[in-house]
């Protein structure tokens, strides 16, 4: 009998090991996280800020079509045209208000997406390994840059933020809530609301950036799916909250609303399907206009796509584009490991696009510096196959372009930043879904033995 028990134990152990092996092999995430910080004492790596402060609101799992004025046909009464404020303000003030669909890199889970949004970088294998335990960010980030500039950050909502940035928020303005109970649809949202409005109403409250992370839409998705009356009620609540926020906003504060990822038709996420990787972004400047009314932005800079089932094209960006964009808008250096590209509309402050040219130049130089540093690191050999191509595109970039050559230069710089992103994605963020699934099946089997 003891031998039988022992062999069963060995068998379970073996199945377990095989499960872990296959599961982790499925995530071919090999990026080395560099710990360098982007700094410049002379201010040459940043722009004058457009806004003194920012309110950044995350509605977890806010898919693009939830905000889109042109949702798929036929629209759902439960999640289309319910959260209407962003599309209303964008229609009324197209030089102050901007809607985007963002591609959020898989794995589409909150921890990984928060890292992407704040660092501008791609997932690493360490992220996956510590998925549920959480882990703090050691890379340069938008949050780290705010801190280095002496800015004060208030925070409320999903406690993934305080796991990732344990020492970054003002202790007396930090209100984290447990994000684990998917059955609970309201506690986190009510907590955010309770602490958000006193800080917005108090003109002397000492925050520079306020981050609020709502979880209800995500939890309704997991529990009941997007096509449920509770989703409509939840989105109506979010619309109501946003209207109050806009009402209280002063002219020096930029409002940023985003989803960290989307959700599939059943309301779940984590994978790389179209609906899971589609997140919404709304940027609103109540005071100064960001886009000059006579701006003639070359169309090649404004990428679009059509959301599945919709008939009208929408602006489409990468979610990691937020990192360089928010950093430069708030007068900070772009995080060192960033692979995102600045969003043109938000920097086209005069007719000629001078600020955009400046922002894109800083952004391109930052990515070049990052790639050069990576190339010289212990993992630099990973870039062997892509390096010649990248260098060839880099040779076409000329930072001393004459006004006549501007448009071609913007194209060359964007070609470089986007090639860098696609090369790195190919190298560092490949997923083998069948290995991951097989590994999970084995792990579950082993657990039930
Ligand atoms: Zn979720």
How would you portray this structure in words?
The chain is of the alpha/beta class and 449 residues long. The chain folds into two domains: 2-29 and 435-448; 53-330, 3-Layer(aba) Sandwich (Alkaline Phosphatase, subunit A). The chain has helices at 2-26, 64-67, 85-92, 110-119, 125-129, 142-148, 160-164, 187-201, 216-224, 229-248, 322-329, 354-375, 384-395, 406-428, 433-448; strands spanning 27-28, 53-59, 97-103, 153-158, 174-177, 209-214, 253-258, 278-285, 304-305, 314-318, 430-431. It has a nine-stranded mixed β-sheet, sandwiched between helices. Strands 1-11 form a two-stranded antiparallel ribbon. Strand 4, helix 7 (160-164) and strand 5 form a beta-alpha-beta unit. The two termini are 17 Å apart.
- Number of spatially distinct domains: 2
Q: Ions, cofactors, ligands: which are bound?
A: zinc ion
CATH architectural type of the largest domain: 3-Layer(aba) Sandwich
Instruction: Let me know the number of strands.
Output: 11
Q: What separation lies between the terminal Cα atoms?
A: 17 Å
Radius of gyration of CA atoms, rounded to a whole number: 22 Å
Fourth-level CATH superfamily of the largest domain: Alkaline Phosphatase, subunit A
CATH class of the largest domain: Alpha Beta
Q: What is the helix content?
A: 40-55%
Shape: globular
CATH topology of the largest domain: Alkaline Phosphatase, subunit A
Quick check: average pLDDT?
A: 91
Spatial order of strands in the largest sheet:
5-4-6-2-7-8-3-10-9
Question: DSSP strand (E) fraction?
Answer: 5-15%
């Amino acid at each position: 009998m003891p031998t039988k028990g022992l062999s069963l134990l060995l068998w379970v152990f073996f199945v377990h090991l095989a499960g872990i092996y296959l599961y982790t092999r499925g995530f071919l995430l090999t990026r080395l996280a560099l710990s360098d910080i982007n700094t410049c004492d002379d201010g040459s790596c940043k722009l004058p800020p457009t806004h003194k402060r920012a309110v950044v609101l995350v509605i977890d799992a806010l898919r693009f079509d939830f905000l889109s004025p042109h949702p798929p046909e036929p629209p759902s009464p439960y999640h289309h045209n319910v959260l209407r404020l962003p599309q209303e303000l964008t229609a009324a003030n197209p030089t102050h208000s901007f809607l985007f669909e963002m591609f959020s890199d898989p794995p589409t889970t909150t921890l990984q997406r928060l890292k992407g949004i704040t660092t501008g970088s791609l997932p690493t294998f360490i992220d996956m390994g510590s998925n549920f335990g959480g882990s703090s960010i050691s890379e340069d980030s938008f949050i780290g840059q705010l801190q280095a500039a002496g800015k004060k950050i208030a925070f409320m909502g999903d406690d993934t933020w305080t796991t990732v940035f344990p020492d970054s928020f003002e202790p007396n303005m930090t209100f984290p809530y447990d994000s684990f109970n998917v059955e609970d649809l309201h506690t986190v949202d009510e907590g955010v609301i309770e602490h958000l409005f006193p800080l917005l109403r108090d003109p002397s409250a000492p925050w520079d950036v306020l981050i609020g992370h709502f979880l209800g839409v995500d939890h309704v998705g997991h529990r009941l799916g997007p096509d449920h009356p509770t989703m409509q009620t939840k989105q109506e609540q979010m619309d109501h909250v946003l209207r109050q926020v806009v009402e209280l906003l002063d002219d020096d504060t930029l409002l940023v609303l985003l989803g960290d990822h989307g959700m599939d038709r059943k309301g779940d996420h984590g994978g790389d399907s179209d609906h899971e990787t589609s997140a919404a972004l709304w940027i609103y400047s109540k005071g100064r206009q960001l886009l000059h009314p006579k701006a003639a932005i070359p169309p090649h800079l404004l990428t679009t796509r059509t959301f599945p089932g919709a008939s009208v094209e929408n602006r489409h960006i990468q979610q990691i584009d937020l990192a360089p964009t928010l950093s430069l808008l708030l007068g900070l250096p772009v995080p060192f490991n960033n692979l995102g590209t600045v969003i043109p509309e938000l920097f086209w402050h005069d007719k000629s696009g001078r600020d955009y040219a400046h922002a894109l130049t800083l952004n391109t130089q930052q990515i070049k510096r990052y790639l050069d540093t990576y190339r010289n690191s212990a993992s630099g050999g990973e870039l062997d196959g892509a390096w010649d191509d990248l260098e060839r595109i880099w040779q076409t970039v000329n930072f001393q372009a004459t006004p006549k050559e501007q448009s071609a230069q913007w194209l060359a710089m964007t070609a470089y930043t986007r090639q860098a992103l696609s090369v790195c994605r190919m190298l560092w963020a490949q997923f083998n879904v069948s290995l991951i699934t097989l590994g999970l099946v084995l792990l579950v089997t082993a657990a039930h033995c």
